[in-house]
Structures
1.
Amino acid sequence: MPRPGFVLEVDKSTPPILFWRGENFSLEKLPAGRSRVIYAPEPLPAIEDVDGAIRHALLNPIEQDPLPEQLFPGMKLTIAFDDVSLPLPKMQRPDIRQRVIEAVLDMAADAGVDDVHIISALALHRRMTEAELRHAVGDRVYDAFAPRGTLYQHDAEDPDNLSYLGTTPHGEDVEINKRAAESDLLVYVNINLVAMDGGWKSTATGLSSYKSLRHHHNPETMIHSRSFMDQHRSELHKSNWRMGKVLLDSGVKVFQIETTLNTDTFPSPFGFLAKREWEWKPSDRMTFLASTKALNRTPTRLARKIFHSIEAPHQMTSVQAGDVEAVHRITTEHVYKQQLVEVKGQTDILTLGIPYISPYNVHSILNPILVMCMGLGYYFNMYKGMPLVREGGVIIMTHPMQPDFHPVHHPSYIDFFEQVLADTTDPKVMSEKWEKQYAEDEWYKHLYRTTYAYHGVHPFYMWYWGSHALQHCSRIIIVGGDPKTVRRLGFVPASTMDDALEIASDVVGRAPTITHLHAPPLMVADVS
Amino acid sequence: MKALKISRKTAKFAVARLMSPVSTIGAAKFGPLSLVNESAPTMPNAEGWHRIQPRLTGICGSDLSLVEGHASTYFDDWVSFPFVPGHEVVADCDDGRRVVLEPVLGHACRGLPLPFEGAAPGDGDDYAHLVGGHLAPGIQTGFCTSTGGGWATELIAHDSQLHEVPDNMSDEQAVLVEPAAGGIHAALATWPAVQAAIQRGETPIVAVLGAGSMGLCAIAGLRRYVPQVRIIVGARYPHQQAFARSLGADIVVPAAELARAVRRESGGHIVGDYLSGGCHATIDAVGSSDSIMDCLKFTRPRGRVVLLGMPAVVSLDLTGLWHRETALVGAYTYGTESMPDGSKRHTFDLAIEAAADCQLNRLVSATYRLDDYQNALAHAAGAGRRGAVKIVFDLRASDARHKKETN
Amino acid sequence: MARDDAPWKPSNLAKAARIGELVERITHPIAKRTYRKGFPYLPPTIPLGVAVPEDEPTLGADYDTKWARKSPAKFVRKGLVNGPIRIAIKGLASPKLYGVDRLHDLAQMKDPPPLIFTPNHHSHLDTAVMAVAVPEPWRSKLVVAAAADYFFDKRWKATMAALALNAIPIDREVTGRKSSDMIKELIEDGWSLMIYPEGGRSPDGWGQDFKGGAAYLSGRTGAAVVPVFIDGTGALFGKGMKRPKFGTTKVVFGAPMRALEDENTRRFSARIEEAVTELGDESLTDFWTARQRSARKESTKLTGPEYTGWRRQWALSERREMGTAGLRRRQKRRWPDIGN
């Protein structure tokens, strides 16, 4: 029986707690009597007959006709799927998307459908390499469709392949991929790793362009999304839902297939990374010591390669298909069932260990801006109700934060770091002063369209993701980071956790209360 | 008179070269430079010569490379040993004026006919005069055995080399006149490329790589004398970045980030290491293989790279230069300039104006006595690291000075 | 001494003779002593006038292969399969595996059930290729059904087949009661079976009709059938070829299938044949085309077109060109690789 998540009150007998630090981890002792650690629920059991469950969902969708009845010969069918940013870390083969797409194609073949396009819904993310596509959709689908040019990646900067569908009552432009808009049926294959994914966000964001995205990917919307994991209190989601209505009204038929995963994130023998520290067996302790000692001596490039090759054993816990909003309601319940932890009250300080990976650096480098996004954008926002840290409190993150940037994947991030952050770290100021030229720079567009680079405007979105945290907290401290880089981001560098607490003391006093989020694995704190 | 002398002892040059990466003081101590006490240089048998007594003399990068044994063997035929270095001089003249020295030993001082009416010492397309006339061979005062040099208490100079310093100019401003002239000359050397850009209707962009004393003077020259130009500077140290901004640079970034800053300003792509476009002209104020290669990489095709910093033997991959039809030109000292508005002016006159208006005295970071030359040279060699720009010898309190007679 | 260009080289013969003499000198005394000792070192001579009872038939379908599934033999076989056989097959046939992920769910189970693999059959290489291609956990517990009259007619052949491939004898035409009982016991013990529904190798490059043995066994034991398509082995070492050629092959695994409710053996066998046919299509073209053709009932039959004579061979060569055997020729690099 998987145990639910719980909050540990740290006392004098509590062992030191695991903190991620990029491509390494350490153990930190938290002060007794005023610290608490939030542990995620244990992974729920996976579905036994995955293929059977998928078939069942396709034949019994929610508030729509069964899929075979929606397929007919001569129709235009488009299948869109979530890109390489999900799931994290990547799944062992066969990927969920492969199973779902093959099941859909099975039914399509039986129905005599010839015109099928399969599109990676990446919005302004980077294109996927052949190896990544093969991993996601499987070799059979890749070899059948890619050589024909019917398996491809969404290009948000191709004016000939975008359809403008109108505006929402708030004046937000809705523009999506042309093929998707003009198909008889758009099947969206989604993986819901966190409650933020899925619903209308899949199509309205995944297949859209800058013109649409800027209406909800901006500081105002982000600051008023409290939080992203709580759809009904998130301006981001409200905007996407409005765009979804425009999509429906303009005749786009969407058959949404959403799946949820359990949080079995680490393959053995690294399962101890998710375990409660007092339950570590001797073999776990040995593995921990051996790994940290080896990683201390491993050059960062090699360490990154090792970590990014990890395939997580997480498996599917639910699959539902049909009407977008009805399906998403059920999916969100499943996500909360796996990830929700009840927490009472806020604390002065929130500590976060930032791992080596985020959705935006798969097979790549977690540059300083992505560290900020991971900590202040994602982990800070893993709450329902109110943030874990009080207003005016302090966030302490551990990460080496080196000024390393991947020149192929993140070219505009380098210029963002050198030019924009040297000028201002205020999201509102940078959105007015700098965002336009990065969004329209011809070279970044060229790299996004032809190589494997994130769009020129993407680093801004990463910064905006943490807008609420920047406004909410009075100080952000980075432990173990490169001092110059940390200061460039507007944060305060510290060498050790004790130094960090000392630095925080003039804001939160000498005996602050501390919450540590023991993530990964993922969780959502239900704070009351 | 007391003087620092460089003698031609190959072994000593070798020692200096070996020691210089580790210890400039060692190179100064064991190298070819030595402090001597000897008679002042004799005046040649000609009109217009004066004795001058230096008040402040600067230490230049070319002097340092000589002392450290790094200078190219090119100059072997254009200098005469033994000589006293020092060519950035503000001095008291024997006729009572305070003067700044234009060190190039041109036609006039050697008794040779001028190349054209009103030529400055640095003009003329045939360098034969530098080794002829009634002086020993030497490109400048400070490299010639006949004239002495600025790192001494006394030297001789010709009328054509002396410029009177206005009373409202301090010594510190005057000692920067000679480097300023070099910088202004390099700045004006970018004019053909800048002019072409203006004629095409584009905003001309000039990049300056390196913000030591020469680079900063080039920035001042660009801002004052080249119209409409947008100046991007790559400077390694924070104090250099601050000076660059105050002298009129539009964008100042750390030197490693200069290429991307040029791309952000001029647009275009980066293909491999090279910008697809780039700035219209670049001034390289460093002069190493890496700096010249970097300049070639972010100067646009058919643009101009002006080499201000004296290079020695460098290794370059010139395929990019050939493919991009880049012009690589040297900028040496000064003479008569063709200004953007069409007029002709002497660089030194421009420099005297600039040194005062731009308050270039701020670039003088420290002064040393002549006896303390080893520390002075060490400071000059590590100027950037140590937060300095220009190091000068202060000879105003020297015992061997003749007191100025007031009439 | 003979010249280098002489058509024969007496020096080699002389060398051989010398080696022969040496061996003889060493072994002759031992051989002589054994000969003098006679029985029991040598087989007995039969006295006159005595009736010798006939041996129990121990070859053919009656050969007892139980020893091959016990420890020392299992260990030796593991070494053989993962060592020399794997290297030889990789070098000779370079098999590319597809569709192994269709078995992923079963492989993940705590107790993976035994499976019945049913590939098409074009060459003796097929068995070795399968022994190397079948994924764990079934590879180490795999039994191969081999023709009793071909593999088990001589003792040395029987021993080699049982040891190296874990073969069990099976009658070609009709699955005899004894064979099928033995196989049922093996499957219940957890052994997976590999059996060729076509019975024998293809005589002319096209497939033969599937016999019902695999479907029947699946019905009796409850084990799922995994259809497999092997492409290319026929061109490397087909029926009638003296020596194998080097080349590439493909192995495509299908999804496990069981008989539906009310489906008799004959119809299940036909469904298995359709599945292998679709895999054949998938191997030659791609998954989507094969799936569409199968849905439209247009898959190219494994048994080939209804032609006779030269047209049948002509159609075969066209099909071969699409397959992996043709791939090697097509992929031959035309420009030198200058390494960019």
2.
Amino acid sequence: MMTRRGFLGAAAASAAVAAAASSTGCARATLSAGLPGKSAVAILHAASYSVDLVDCLARGAALCGLNARGKRVLLKPNLVEFDARSVIHTQAEILAAAVVLFERLGASEILIGEGPGHRRDAWFLAEEAGYRAAISHFDSRFVDLNRDEVTRVAPFAGTPGIYLARTALEADLVVSIARMKTHHWAGATLSMKNLFGVVPGAVYGWPKNHLHQAGIGPCVAELNRIFPRRFAIVDGIVGMEGNGPIQGRARPCGVLVMGSDLAAVDATCCRIMDIDPGKIEYLQLASGQGHVHEPSIEQRGESIAQVRTRFELIPEFQHLRLG
Amino acid sequence: MSKCVGSRPAILRATQNPDGGWGYFPGKPSWLEPTAYAMLALAEERDTAVDRGWSLLRSWQRPDGAFRPCTTVDEAHWSTSLVVTLACTTGVIDETFQSGLGWLLSSAGVEGRPFFRLVHWLRPSIVEFDPSLSGWPWEVGASSWVEPTAHALMALRCAAKSGRRPDLAPRISLTERMLLDRRCRDGGWNFGNRRVLGADLPSYPETTALALMALNGHAAVGWGAALDGVDRAWHNTRSPLARAWLSSCLLMYRGMRPEAADRDEPAANDLLVTAIEGIRWDQILAA
């Protein structure tokens, strides 16, 4: 029987092959998305945004068995707001690296979509965040999901239905690219809650108060159900702690977390942040859609213990601590 | 007046959809919000495009008096406020106007309801505000936010100015108090509140400009400093949407928009911005 250490060694070897293949534009999925009954989550060390992020993401994609060939991909960063003095948004370097990654993986189309949480000019926020400068053909890729055409999905979280951005619904693969942050209402905001950005402000207003009224936890879990073809990249190179998702402080963590099971990715991120994922409402509700319990998640790459970084929590959320 | 404003009517005429409305972007399906702003921008010229716009808007009115935001979505929408303002501006004081205004007056944020007031009484520091002062929500059944409240207040002022509804004064006064109560420590307005979980919230240029426009010279504002702040914000931001609202605020109170030295052409690709910048807010809202 293969030990965990032995398996990780084999996985790393396969990942190296996949990474090399991806750099030549012929990447193939080399590993399964997880052992039977388990979900694979890749944890990659990345000390800063100046390391080779495309290589990091390619290794993570290979570790998770990601296959994007021929798919219309929507990259969904977290651009809920932008402040040059803070770390609210998904870092431009990560988003740019993801575009290159999916080009190498053979995606047929790569769009970038976001519906910021505040009533701001989405194109302006994208420019301020450095996206336009960092990403080739940004203008032809970007969709303001707040003002997109909409399609009704029913039912939704105990309500008759919800209108969602059509670009997101029509994508073959939605890639949630979030920053690792604490959240003053939900405890943590990671790849699953990042999907709030597909809810159109033009219908529901800003900051998507509809979802807060219906309950953040049920709505996050429901969005997770609506988008079954998805992948997560969580930017924890520098996260946010304290009064997130907007007013918190930068927290260097030096890690990228990736996987196809968003619940498993977010649960892993919580453990890295020293938060008990079992105490996060939306992860409790999503446990039937993905794996939250640690024995059901197959960690690939680094171990949680190697990268664990205690994120400060506001007083109201001290009970969320692990242990 | 900035020279670039002059080209906006031409852009709006050229981008009107066959159904009579405007999308947020050229060639995209019509939504009420850009349609109402485009019609307000063209109203002064008594453009035939406005008549075609009214045909579409009337088809979007629901039995309850509210308007839907677009063909696809059949839900009462906050932008009913814009239709009321538009009706007053274009002199369409008919059943469409009366029922739209009626729906607006029946709508309010839920924070004033007993359950929410009890929750606030138990934990007042979560979100600090006076729950007896309700404004308008983005959607039915939600809490009040600054932007829909500002738009509703502007609509009520226009309706009152039309001479048909002297009974609106108490609601206007209540809404003014609500907006003043939500003013941030830095003198502007956030999107919803001024203080959450013990932390002061920052103001934003869009919401600050809208709140000041809705407050319409209210004595409690301190206008010199407020408008100087708006002028500074206009020079400090590159956001087209923020600039559109900030310049509209300056047009309303100082009679002219700032000159845009760094951008001579309108943001033609964003019809919302183009339309807002083309509206004579000084004529529509001035007391």
3.
Amino acid sequence: MYIMNIHIKTFASVRDICGFDNITMELPDGASVKDAVSCLSEKNPELGTKIDILLFAINEEYRAVDARLQDNDVLAIFPPVSGG
Amino acid sequence: MKIVQMQKEPIDVTGLLHKSGTVEDGAILTFIGTARKNSMGREVHYLHYDVYEDMAMRELDKIVKHAVETWPLTNCIVIHRYGRVNIGEASVFIAVSVKHREEGFAALRYIIDTIKKTVPIWKKEHYADGSVWVSERP
């Protein structure tokens, strides 16, 4: 099976939960954002409990949790924004 | 003129106001968001803003592009801080210059409301005894 490299970035409370701000992980071809979060949640279960409120961006564009990833995508995972 | 930027340094509000308007326009409208001392009954010592800088710039650019295409703005300035922001300092500065005020009010409200919804910036309040991400507050 083809393996993709996905570059994960985390911000704010998601970074606190995960304990890193960026990491590269390997996922099988065809994996979705949800698959990436599930994989990260194995080490950081709290992340999985927040999946319904989290926001995701692939290559700096907002995407839904069921969006498919492609090799070398940058996937950012973060909580609702609170600027202003 | 369009100015869109993220910066760590304090915002020079007075300097920006001086260059916000034009002689063709009848109104300069500004919104300045500031770090307040009290939040939900707790005394805030300072704020810290985390940012996904490249994406935040893209989102800010989209917001300003939409605003200048929708309303006849001569000038549009949007500046957001990140990093530490002390109490009383400006965290965000928005100014629009326009012939008539109604269009300016509409543009200003659109810009700040959309920043709060889409730009990847996160505010953390620091107190004497800890800190809380605002997006995680119950």
4.
Amino acid sequence: MKRYFAVPLLLAASLGLSACQATAPKPLAAPQESAAPQAVVVNGVHEYRLDNGMKILVKEDHRAPIAVTQVWYKVGSSYEHNGITGVSHVLEHMMFKGTQKHPPGEFSRIIAANGGSENAFTGQDYTAYFQTLEKSRLPIAFELEADRMRNLLLPPEEFAKEVQVVMEERRMRTEDDPHSLLYERFSAAAYVTSPYQNPVIGWMNDLEAMKVADLQKWYQMWYAPNNATLVVVGDVDPREIYAQAKQYFGPLQPSVTAELKPQREIPPKGQRRITVQAPSELPYLIMGYQVPSLKTAQQEWEPYALDVLAGILDGGNSARFAKELVRGSQIAASANAGYDLTARLDTQFLFDGTPSDGRTIPELEQAIAAQIQRVKDELVKPEELERVKTQVVTGKIYELDSVFYQAMQLGMLDTVGLDWRLLDEYPNRIKAVTAEQVRQVAQKYLVDNNLTVAVLDPLPLDTNAVRKPTMGGRHAR
Amino acid sequence: MRANRFIVALILILTAFGTQAGPQIQHWQTPNGARVYFVPAPELPMVDIQVAFDAGGARDGDKAGLAALTATLLDEGTDALNADQIAERVADVGASLGSSSSQDMAVVSLRSVTDEKLLNPALDIFTRVLTQPSFPKAAFERERSRMLIGVQQMKQSPGSIASETFYTALYGQHPYATNTAGTIESLNKIKREDVINHYRRYYVAKNAIIAIVGALDRKQAESLAVRIFDSLPTGEPAATLPPAADLTEAQTITKAHPSTQSHILMGQPGIKRNDADYFALYVGNHVLGGSGLVSRISEEIREKRGLSYSAYSYFSPMREAGPFTLGLQTKNESAQEALKVLGETLRTFIAQGPTEEELKASKQNITGGFPLRLASNKKIVEYIAMIGFYGLPLDYLDAFNGKVEAVTAAQIKDAFQRRVHPDKMVTVIVGGNG
């Protein structure tokens, strides 16, 4: 538990984290905390703001007598600098280690005793804490979350153990998983100046050198009501939630959070290629092109066109990769494309794959390159475009089956600095994308100059074995 | 079909809350004997369907991977459509089609919106892949080859190696010893005819249940079930599986792997789905290692000593005795220390049982979390498929609550002492120099 979402590779895309347009958020009414709260209500989402700056988003879903509550902080690994990588995530772990009022572990015990489930996750652009509870028990979560927002103790003896736990987490997720390892090195190579070059979980050496003081500073810097958004989705009355939130979070003092430097990625000037040698059975390929996100795009339609492009190539079993690379030519045992348009900074349009038996990494790379060339040369067919759009529309219905996911979308958008109202516009934005626009973004962004290629070159798993002969350094068996 | 990556482990909190009732499950049979379980959910314009056959890896015989390969191949071609056409038709209506298999079951699932114009074609495809798969030769070769790649990929993962080793050691000659993903040897042995035979024998109405949750009325659900099963033969239920034998002695298996961590699994055959000790063991394990960070194992291994990111124990109730598993991962140097703490925690728990406070806290968590368990159509369809497949009573969810509350500390201690034997467990350690 206390997971981080490194948003490994194509996860964000597969979660279908859909969103938004790149317009400025509409200004809210001046903060008021009179008996009648000022709410902005759009499509069932109620937005409030407390005097101390904390934002509250509430969405009703009355299908089951439960609610999910999430507290999102604008901090994550992309806020970190060298030497303290992973500090956001370690702090997330330490948030369960006690305040004056609640000793270490009590947070979890109280939630458990109330039938709740809880966890937390850290990403590049956010840190979030959540509980799911029977609806009448939400104030219990509010009390605990408000307490640890300002009163965390960070006991050194707890830190000493917990940072070991995080190192074990890193070993499990990254060190001993060749695909994660390749992705980590890929990111380190693809980003030159962007903080996305660092892993969410942090470099091992930074974890080893981390001090309580680093966490203390980080906590002071980012954990304040004016840097947080409370999201509640479930069988609730928004006005009641507002009143309860005000009761628990209202008294918290705001603080001046640090000004975030832009840390924009410099424009690439040529292709980058890396090889990672690690014990594994199979080779593996990651390719990424630097692209804008909704937040950074100059042309607001471009991220939507990139999103459609990802769907054309890899939106399920009918998309081109499954049809042509896995079934048709059978070059790939697996081949994926993905794009996360909700990143706070410029991001990567990603491809990854494993060649099928008897095929090689160069063959797979060429096949993917040929697919990319085709979207630059030919307009995608109307039926392909239509298919992607239909899936977006039905996907919006399926999303409503999960209160957690609904809350997650609201929290994520708000925390990366996008307007949550864009959620409702997403299907229309996607519907507006034309075949010509798909071709244009491919021509503009999927170019060699923007490309980083990372290849996993297998070392024998049996350390006594002689290395298999390879062809061109990366031969698929 | 791509295996469904979101196979929800049934480690979900199985609970009941206060006097709240579960969903009213409507149950009937199709004319040819398939059992139907239906819960109307009118709130959202969508439907979830799961069809489960007693056709999992336990039916592989000496061809490990056969059940998984069969399930994977269903949407690779029917009498009238090829794989591309099937995939396109599914995507054209925004549906999602999936299949998965475990030791006990093969599950084929559909999610669709209920708008007639979209649901009708979705059901058409779903019915075709279930009832008229043609298992094209080329697709068979390709998917078998992809499963072989999958087997190789698992060899990169110390966790996967540990799990495979664990099952094999636990079950010996029992069908549950089968690696459902197959092995290089077994996959190379499988022929297309084996897939066809597996399909013909097990994908039959009397060997199937269908769970439906969505914005349909009873009449619609009835005609949907008939439509799906109409062209499946009646057939026969699968033969009863032999009981899993108890282990007779302790066994420790170590395997070297070039990893920084060692993955440790410890356990024995545990309980059946309808086991008389189910509730005592389930609630007891919640205290021991089944409640995340607040469980004893997590407290000892992670919270007190910082030895592992995840340390746990759980029962996997299956048709026959599924495994009781304790597990963790830790840096190679700590493997022996962690193993010692894990064993001691288990022995202490068996000797003493839970404290009254622990039991109370676990019951509160289990019963208080009842509504969470049924908070989405997805969760409900998984529960009713489980209830249907294992033939649990229709009031299973309603009664769960009371059964959890009725468990005493003495019953837990007694059940653990009779059923859990640390001196006869399998211990698997994969990592480092082994």
